[in-house]
Amino acid sequence: LLFFVSILISVINVFFSFSLLIIVAERLGRIFRVQEINSKRATMIRLFTMLGYFILVFSMSLFLNVAIRLVMDLFISVSTVENVEILNYILTLIPFPLSPSYLLVMCIDPVRFSILQWSISIVGVLLYGLLTWFLYRKAVKSMRSVTRSSSLEVKSGREEKKEIEIAIKTRSPIIAYIRKDLSIATKDIQMLMFILMPIILPLIMVFSILGSAGNEVVGDFLILWTIVIMYFPIIALMLIAGFLNVEDSGASVLASLPLNPRDQVKAKMILMITILSISYALPIIIMLFNPALSIYMGLFISWYPIVLMFLLIGFQMKIRLFGRMKYKYVLEEINAQHKTWKWIFIGSVEFTICIGFMIMGVMIYSFFGMLVMTIVSLALSLGSLAILFVTLNIMFPRELGRRKMIGIRGTLRKYPLLGTLVLLAVYFVFFYVPDLILLPFILLLQLLPILAVIIIETLLTLAIFGFLWLYIVPKGFKLPNDDENFKEFSRSIRLSNWKPLLKIITIGIGVSLITFLSFYIFGNLFGTYSFDLDVIFGEPLYAPGGFGWLVFIIMLIPGVWEEVSFRGVITTLNERKYSRFSVLIIVSILFGLFHFTNLLSGQALAPTILQVFYASTLGMAFGYMVIKTNSLWPGIIAHYLIDSVGQLFLNTTFPDLASYTFFTILGVGICPLILNFFFIWAMTNKKHKKLKEIPL
Predict the structure, then answer these.
(1) 161 pLDDT exceeds 60?
(2) 264 to 180, 311, 438, 625: CA distances (angstroms)
(3) Nearest in space to 643 (alpha carbons), one of 558, 527, 525
(4) Of the candidate ranges 315-319, 324-328, 378-382, 670-674, the one whose mean pLDDT is the lowest
């Protein structure tokens, strides 16, 4: 009995499912009919109808998600009902999906159920059969209407063509491209999904999370913020894939035409930014009645440029990898080789940037709170967004010429300040690479003494920075010049020039001694200086200042690699476009500003601001040494000695913040700068010219 009933139910299920599928397909076919396919009215009807279908489908999925979670509650409630049999009778009469299920269960043990229960179950299955028959007849009519309309179209195609008056309306290219994309989207179900899914997905996802986790997630806004943000690299890639793949058909023809794709880019960016903005704003609906709405709004506003960054980065990478021609970039996929790997690379970059910004945000929030996190995130994201818009404008100029298109690395060389910002961003990221490398060995490191762990991390950092500045930068980024071997690279950044050796050592040590003398004099003027050799020779972690003899190892990192980076690579890169004097000022200021990153390690704001000032002045002295000696080594020697031995002359206590401020500005900043300029000039000017004649 169970076998035959199962076959019967299966047949009914097949007819029910296929009939429903045909009806839905016929409805969708009406939306994508050819008649009036390019009219604005037809486009809007198709768009809103499909949007309604998507909302209905996702609402049903949300309803089912909630219903499944409430099944246990339903069983508990039913178990407390006195007349359970009456409830079973009612549920048995529901045609789909309960009545077939009841009948199959009853066939397992027929004797257990009463005749009344059998009768009601059979009635329910008959109702299910009638519903299936009704849907089947509806599906047959739908099929006939489809075939009839197809035959009519064929017959109408054989009739004589009538003259049609065509009214041509002029529109701007951007509006024309927007209408074209929307029209194609309403005819292409795949592209339409790529448009509608980004709008609905975040909202459905947030509601699903709230349905499963409740107020626990809403109470912790960082969790909800993290979940929402992690979806937007995916959403950006969906939009890019949807809108740019529209141009695949006839790609070779379009790419060969003398068309400027700038208007295409503008149209697609308008559409994608609009959809992305709607998608980003929808989850805020669930927070309207939350007491912490202002915090949410500040967080979401500050991260809005970062979300736009995902879109712009993916958009530019997709075009650079797929649409680069000799004299221009196009939106069509001209270079379709290794398509899968290229998309994997784009997605990896998107998620790496996303995770990096999230880690930065969490760290700033942990140390300084929500306000500082919001301000810093907004500032960094706006700066990055401005750079991305500039690079996009460079890729698609207003006028196309016979100018060979340059890649990203060529752009970084052509615009040195942009290349400098990229290098500094990479430099900052590499500060956290040693921690990531040591993370899998954290259990092993806990068995070692803390001093051994510090030494291991320091040596690893030295090696990683060496790999960055001596291999990745010249070979990967091809900076500061184009393709160079190590010998050419070291010569161009003045690393290989160490002659005359005695003079280089003398200048480096002399600058250090002048700086130490300034520390000592102004330290006694504004505070109380204490001479204690344990500062640099004492036991690490217990010596004054905490360094001890470990200072000679740790200070190799800034002493060597800050000089190679700022006075070496970055200075040489900017000398391609700017004068030596301008480069000296620019690099010195950037060197000082880069020390704001010490805020992330927990350093207070006031000392950091003072450090930025005196780092700029010391950087100017180091840069002047490079100009006058044409070598990095005097700066490396001076920088290393000031950071290491200089701790001995900074062992000063100050009565108040004002005294410390004056000491920093005068004793660490201005006075050493002036004295060192005179000393360097005297050591390098063989003809003893006047200072005003020094060529900077």
Answers:
(1) no
(2) 10, 16, 47, 51
(3) 558
(4) 324-328
Cα–Cα dist 273/158, whole Å:
45
Who wins on pLDDT, 227 or 213?
227
pLDDT digit string, tens, across residues 613-644: 999 999 999 999 999 999 999 999 999 999 99
CA 396, CA 248: separation in Å to the nearest integer? Answer: 19
Dist. CA 127–CA 98, nearest whole Å: 11
211, 72 contact by CB (below 8 A): no
Distance CA 471, CA 46 (A): 55
Q: Label residue 694 left, alpha or beta by phi (over 0 means left) and psi (-120 to 50 means alpha).
A: beta
Rounded-to-integer distance, Cα 111 and Cα 123, Å = 19
Helix or strand (DSSP H, E) at 633: helix 633-644
Whether the model pTM is above 0.90: no
The pLDDT tens digits for 6-34 are: 777 777 777 777 777 777 766 666 655 54
> Which of 123-129's residues contact partners 24+ apart within 8 Å by CB, and which partners?
123/93, 124/92, 124/93, 124/94, 124/95, 124/98, 124/99, 125/9, 125/12, 125/95, 125/99, 125/100, 127/93, 127/95, 127/99, 128/12, 128/16, 128/95, 128/96, 128/99, 128/100, 129/12
Candidates 343, 345, 313, 351; CA nearest to 233 is 351
The string of pLDDT tens digits covering residues 330-358 is 777 778 788 888 888 888 888 888 887 88
- Do the beta carbons of residue 627 and residue 584 sit within 8 Å? yes
Q: Which residue has the tokens 């975040």?
A: 202
Q: How many CB atoms lie within 10 A of CB 144?
A: 10
Hey, what are 212's tokens? Answer: 């499963």
φ, ψ of residue 653 to 5 degrees: the values are -105, 145
